[in-house]
Amino acid sequence: MTPSPADIASVQTLPQLLAYRAARTPNSEAYRAFDTTSQAWTSLTWAETAQRVGTWAQALAAMQLPAAARIAILLPNGLNAMCADQATLATGCVPVPLHAIDNPGSIAYILADCEASMLFVSHVEQWEKIQAVGTPFPALRAVVITDDGASLTAIPASGDGPAVGSLAQWLAGAAHAGSATVPKAPEADDLAAIVYTSGTTGKPKGVMLTHHNVISDVKAVLERIAPTAEDVFLSFLPLSHTFERTGGYYLPIAAGSCVAYARSVPQLVEDLKTVRPTVLVSVPRIYERIHAKLLEKLSPTPWKMQLYEAAQNKGWARFCAAQGLPTPTPDANSQAAGWMAALLWPVLQALVAKPLLAQFGGRVRVAVSGGAPLSPTIAKCFLGLGLPLIQGYGMTETAPVVSVNALDDNDPACVGKALPGVEVRIGENRELQVRGPIVMKGYWKRPEDTAKILSADGWLGTGDQAEIVNGRIYIKGRIKEIIVTSTGEKIPPGDLELALLADPLLEQAFVVGENRPFIACVAVLKRDEWQRLAGDLGLSAQDADSLNNPSVHRAVLARIEKNTASFARYAVPRAVHLTLEPWTIENTFMTPTLKLKRNNLMAHFAEAIEGMYQKPGGR
User: What are phi and psi of 230, to 5 degrees?
Assistant: First the structure.
C-alpha cells in the first residue's frame, strides 16, 4: 500500500493523494452511488474506498502486466470506473479513459494505438462491437466486463483474442491465486493517463499527462476554488473528459469532499434535487439546456416572461455592482414591464430566483463551467438569478485547467486569471501560450505533432486567440476557425453560434462564409418549437417543404438578427438552411466531447450551402 504523505504539499502522485485522504479522514463519506438492486443511494467512506481499490490493485498485480501497461477504461461514471482508475495508478500502470458514447471504430483505433494490455467495459455487447471492427489488438490480454456478471461465460485467452470474463470472475481469480506483489509505485514523472483528444479533423491524439502534471493542476485549482470536506460534488460529466477527471474527481480527493455519481443525464434533474450538491462541474451545454427549458416554459405566458426578465435584469445589475463591473445598459429588447421592473429584489428573488435555484438542489455554492465558451446570455441569466457560476479555461494538454475566475473576482466575459504557478503570454497571431508544470509531456507516439504545439523552452500553443488585460484572459476565438469572408471581414464562428443558440427554437447551429460575400447559417430546429412556429405561420410542421418556405426563413432570420444585435452587421447571418435531424456522434457530425465536426458538416450540406449563396442578397 502507498505510504501516506504528511500533508497535501508533500503529495507527488495520484496514489499518494488517495493514501493521504484515506489516512486523514478515513470515516468521512467519499462516494455516493445509486444501487439499482436496493433502489437506494449507498455510500463509501475513504477507508472503505482505499480497501476496495486495494482489492482491485491486487487483481491487477496478479496479471503481471508489463511496467507502465496501458489499461483502457470504457465505463460510465461510478464506483467501478473510480476503482479501475485508482487500481491502475496504484500498480504503476497508465489509465486510458475512453468516451462511453464514442463509436466502436474510434475506440478500436485508440486500443490499438496505445497498445492497451487490458480493457474494462460495462457490457459484453460493447466489446463485441469493438471486435467486429476487425482491428488487431496484439497487446490486449484481458477484457473485464463489469455489469454482465451473472450471465457471462468466461472465455480464456487464445491466439484469436484476449481472455474475456466478468468483474466477479476477475476478482475471484486473483483471490484464488493468492496475494501478488504489487508493482513499484509510480513516480511524479511517470504517466498518470493517456487521454485521447477528440479530433474535429483526423484521428485522435493521445495526450500524455504525468502525475506531476495532474497533481500540480489539482493543487493550483484547490487554491482558487477551495472546496472543503463539507462539499458534495455531483458527477455527471464523463470521466473520460479531463475537466471532470481533475475538477470533479481528483480535486474532491484533495479536499476530502464527497462525490455523488448521477444515475444518468436524463435523470439529472431529479438527481440534482435528491443529492442537493454544493459544487457543480459542467460544460455550458447543461446550463444551455436548462435555460432553453426555462424559456420554453415561460414564453407562452407574457407576464411570466416579463417577471423573469425583471428579476434577471435586477439581479444582473446587483451582480455587476458587487463584482465592480460596469453598470449594464438597459436591454432594448427586454420584455420586463415598468411596474415589474420596479419590484424590489427580495420580491423578485422569492418569485423567480429561488424557484430556479431549487432546480439545482438549492444549495450550490459554486458552479464551474468549462470545456467550451459560456455565452453572455447564459451567464447573465444564471448569475443574475443568483447561481454562483464561474467560467474557466483549459485543454486536455494542460491537465486541463489553465485559468478560472474566483467567486470574489468573477467577470463572466473572461476565463479568469492564470492559476498559481502557470505562465501565460500572447504569441504570434494573438495566440494564447501556456507554460508550467501542468503542460503535457507530449503526444503518444507523435513527436512531430508534439513539436508543432510545444516549443523547446516549454511554451504550449493553445490554438486560441486571446487578450490579457490586468491578468484576466479573454478568449477571442480559434485561430484555425476564423472565417474570412470575401470582403476581408474576420468572424470567429464559435461566438456567433453561441449567440444563435440562445434562441429556444435552435437546437444546433453552424455558420459558414469562408471566401463568401456574407455569413450564412445551417441550423437544426427543436421539434416542439418548430411545431409552434409553423402553426403561427399557418403551415404544416409535418410537411418537409415547410422548412423551405420563405415566410419561415424570414421569421428565423428575424430571430437571428435579434439574438446577434451585439455583433457587427457583417457577422449577422443573411441566409439560413433548416433541418430537423440532429447532429450526433453516431452520424459523425459531433466529436465525443460534443464539438462540431465542421469538415463533415460542410461536406454533407455542400449543396444546401451553395444554394444559400445563389439567392440574391442572401434573402
Answer: -85, -10
